[in-house]
UniProtKB/TrEMBL annotation:
It holds the Pfam family DUF6049. This is DUF6049 family protein. Residues 728-797 are annotated as: Disordered. The keyword Metal-binding does not apply. It comes from Streptomyces hintoniae.
């Protein structure tokens, strides 16, 4: 049974504190006796040595425990312990030996915590040394030099007794010239879980194995049919390459009985790499990605690893639920983004992995929850929330760790992961010693939890989202030992969530004020969600004009999901840069459909046509646009007989379309004309184009004067014609200049007879063939040109 010290914010019992102090005194007694036999050291030197020892609590020799196998031994096993000892002092250590020490069984989980805190303190009781031939001796340990040791001992020689968790230590004893007696100079404590037979009952353990990464894909795609994606960098290729972090997570997890937790964005990103991709370069350009084969291989391995395992899919890009709950719900449209990230999962995971994922789990960062986080998580359809026992703390007085599942109301289940087990493999585990210690403590906590009560329980372990390669290796080593041990059986997450809750376990969600301040500082700010909303509004106005909306809506929709990713925590500058790049790229695309600027024009006459050109530099057609031409001074110039006139616009990809408007002048002077594109729902699209039109209309009086002058010219010409005809007739009658005709008459032609000559009757004009009536004035506008206008085109009149 566990005591009160198993739970947070409670201190060890008075009895335990007394035992620890007594042990410290007993350990220090030989040292005190030895000091009394030595010549007294100079006061300054003695004080310096004492303060150093007190500050560190550790000896002059450091002990690194690199391997301890088997990690959870049983009867008949041989325990192998190896590592190094390093003399960190200034004096050589002589007559030294490395020994193994076994302490008493630890009855509570808090006792394990205490021993971890004192793992290298030579002042604390270290247990009984096994001794005999199970030691390794060193004649001399030179300062600054490390020596390797390896000891094998049958488990039967350890006198472990009953099943349980035992304190276990590797120590270095020896003497120095300044202190020439055998003493404990260095120690490394750890744990020896011992379960000789299968426990009854066993703990049903669920271990989450996350395949999650940071954001890698941008919103940019190529203009080709494949829409080749553009990546921020090639870091994902490094992660999935042999030896990379995600490669390690995959290969290690494939041999374990775990529940896979995947981010659909990671799968989609790797899948996109298999078909070709481009990577941003430092100069703002892109270069072709070259790791298609690596991506194909990794995806094939994932498909094989999860073929018969449970797969839990998070919403696309693993959105930061706490940031959304605390800073995003007040921004319109933010919750719809979360819903979209959830809805897209089914069409992403199953086609890639060929398994149907579980999608009703939400996983806030570090399992920290409050009422607003729960509300946001359930708003997107999740009815199970993975939290952690350091957030949903036990306050009901239970003397053992309860099962993970807790009903918290509204049909929602909190799946409470064990905080001790979940946080065991954090920090730097690159050294073999650190990894070994983490594995032994994890197993010790698990076995201690199992021994708390005879009640069967379900326990969930939710590690950090993105373990390093070394952390993943330690996790796999611990799970391998656990799953081959005698006190735990594996269980899927859905089964743990459905398990019968422990009576009396806490179900009350902590208040908002209990949310950890350190986590709150890492959240996405409100301005981030405002920027996302602005981008989405721009996307909504842009997509309505596109003939193939999926080319834009899909990549930008996924990019906005990525802007809410929990992976941005601790990287505010990178997060802001990504959001700004998405918004800028969308603006750049939208600007590809625009009006061509026009120069000021002149309009002579009563009417004219004004051409306006719409340019489409996208690769796809655009339609559902309306072009409106407005006159700011309709008393001087009207468009189509009104203040403004609209015409629908449809432009093929990579082309321009010229739209012509009929105008009518009402008075001389200058009028400003505004051209503006609108979507069919009446929203302005793009920037307007404004230009001036100078009207120089002809008045009625001027037109009469011009008409009269033209008529006079026609009459004068007619008179000259008739006079010439008369002269010719007279010449024909008189036979020459001396005949009846006057000197101006010409000779008569040979065919003419006297009757051929026209005679004028008194009071009448002679008639001739009408050469034509005076024409109407030329039209104000010639026929419209069907050719498109260029930049700065003139007005057709």
């Amino acid at each position: 049974m566990a005591d009160a010290a198993d739970f947070p914010r409670t201190s060890p019992s008075p009895a335990r504190r007394w035992l620890r102090r007594t042990g410290a005194l007993l350990t220090g007694a030989p040292l005190l006796a030895g000091l009394l036999q030595l010549p007294s050291a100079p006061p300054a030197q003695a004080a310096e040595q004492s303060s150093a020892r007190e500050a560190a609590g550790s000896g002059a020799v450091s002990v690194a425990l690199d391997t301890l196998t088997p990690a959870a031994p049983t009867d008949g096993d041989t325990l192998t312990v190896s590592g190094t000892v390093t003399n960190n002092g200034k004096q050589a250590v002589t007559d030294a030996h490395v020994g193994l020490r076994v302490g008493s069984a630890l009855s509570t989980r808090s006792a394990i915590d205490d021993l971890t805190d004192d793992s290298t303190d030579v002042r604390t009781a270290a247990g009984t040394e096994v001794g005999g031939k199970y030691v390794e001796r060193f004649a001399k340990l030179t300062p600054g030099v490390s020596e390797h040791f390896s000891i094998q001992v049958p488990v039967d020689k350890l006198d472990l007794g009953d099943d349980g968790v035992y304190a276990f230590a590797v120590s270095l004893s020896g003497m120095t010239s300044a202190q020439p007696w055998d003493q404990l100079l260095g120690i490394q404590r750890t744990f020896l879980p011992y379960q000789s037979e299968e426990a009854d009952p066993t703990t049903r353990t669920t271990y989450l194995w996350p395949l999650i990464s940071t954001v890698h894909m941008t919103a940019e795609t190529g203009a080709n049919d494949q829409q080749t994606p553009v990546f921020l960098n090639d870091d994902l290729a490094k992660e999935i390459a042999p030896g990379g972090r995600l490669d390690q997570m995959l290969s290690l997890g494939a041999g374990l009985d775990v529940t896979w937790v995947v981010d659909p964005d990671l799968l989609a990103s790797v899948d996109a790499m298999t078909r070709g991709y481009r990577v941003r370069t430092g100069d703002g350009g892109t270069t072709a990605g070259t790791h298609q084969a690596v991506a194909k291989s990794w995806l094939a391995q994932v498909q094989k690893a999860v073929a018969d395992k449970e797969v839990v899919a998070l919403p696309f890009a693993d959105p930061d639920l706490a940031s959304l709950a605390h800073n995003g719900t007040g921004v319109a449209g933010s919750l719809s983004r979360l819903k979209d990230a959830t809805d897209v999962v089914a069409n992403t995971v199953e086609p890639i992995l060929h398994v149907k994922p579980v999608t009703d789990f939400a996983w806030p960062v570090n399992g920290a929850v409050d009422p607003s986080i729960v509300k946001v998580a359930t708003s997107a359809g999740a009815d199970k929330i993975i939290t952690r026992s350091d957030s949903l703390q036990e306050t009901s007085g239970l003397t053992y760790t309860p099962s993970a599942a807790r009903p918290i109301g509204g049909g929602t289940t909190a799946v409470v992961a064990d905080a001790r087990l979940s946080t065991e493999f954090q920090g730097d585990l690159t050294s073999a010693s650190a990894s070994t210690l983490a594995v032994q403590e994890f197993l010790a906590q698990s076995l201690s939890l199992n021994g708390q009560t005879d009640t069967a329980r379900s326990v969930v372990v939710a590690p950090q989202r993105m373990p390093t390669a070394s952390q993943a290796q330690a996790m796999a080593q611990a799970l391998t030992a656990l799953q081959s041990g005698n006190w735990s059986t594996s269980q899927e997450l859905t089964a743990a969530a459905k398990a019968k809750p422990t009576p009396g376990a806490t179900t009350r969600i902590p208040s908002a004020s209990a949310y950890p301040a350190a986590l709150r500082k890492q959240q996405l700010p409100r301005s981030a969600f405002q920027q996302i909303t602005a981008t989405e509004a721009k996307l909504d106005s842009f997509q309505v004009i596109l003939s193939d909306r999926s080319r834009v809506v899909t990549p930008f929709g996924r990019a906005m999901n990525r802007e809410m990713s929990a992976s941005w925590r601790g990287r505010p500058a990178e997060a802001e840069s990504f959001r700004s790049a998405v918004a800028a790229h969308l603006e750049e695309l939208a600007d590809q459909v625009k009006l061509i600027d026009k120069s000021d024009t002149k309009l002579s006459g009563r009417s004219a046509t004004i051409p306006v050109t719409v340019q489409n530099n996208l690769v796809q057609n655009v339609d559902h646009l309306v072009l409106r031409l407005s006159s700011t001074n309709p008393t001087r110039l009207q468009i189509g007989g009104h203040d403004y006139y609209e015409q629908p616009v449809s432009v093929s990809g990579g082309h321009a379309q010229t739209v012509k408007f009929t105008t009518s002048a009402k008075a001389n002077g200058q009028a400003t004309v505004v051209a503006q594109l609108y979507t069919q729902d009446g929203q302005a699209y793009g920037a307007p184009v404004t230009f001036d039109v100078k009207v120089t209309e002809f008045t009625a009086t001027v037109m009469l004067v011009i008409g009269g002058g033209f008529l006079l010219l026609v009459l004068a010409g007619f008179r000259m014609y008739t006079q010439r005809k008369r002269a010719a007739a007279r010449d024909a009658e008189g036979g020459g200049p001396d005949a009846a005709g006057g000197p101006g008459d010409g000779p008569r032609g040979p065919e003419e007879g006297p009757g051929d000559r026209l005679k004028e009757e008194p009071g009448t004009d002679a008639r001739v063939d009408d050469p034509g009536q005076p024409s109407d004035p030329a039209p104000d506008t010639p026929a419209e040109s069907a050719d498109p206008s260029g930049v700065g085109e003139r007005v057709d009149r």
